[in-house]
Amino acid sequence: MRTNIEIDDKLIHEAMTLSNLKTKKAVVESGLKLLVQIKKQEQIKKLRGKLKWDGDHYYWRFNTHRASSGFPLQYRF
Question: How does pLDDT run across 1-11, given as a tens digit for each residue?
Answer without folding.
Answer: 889 999 999 99
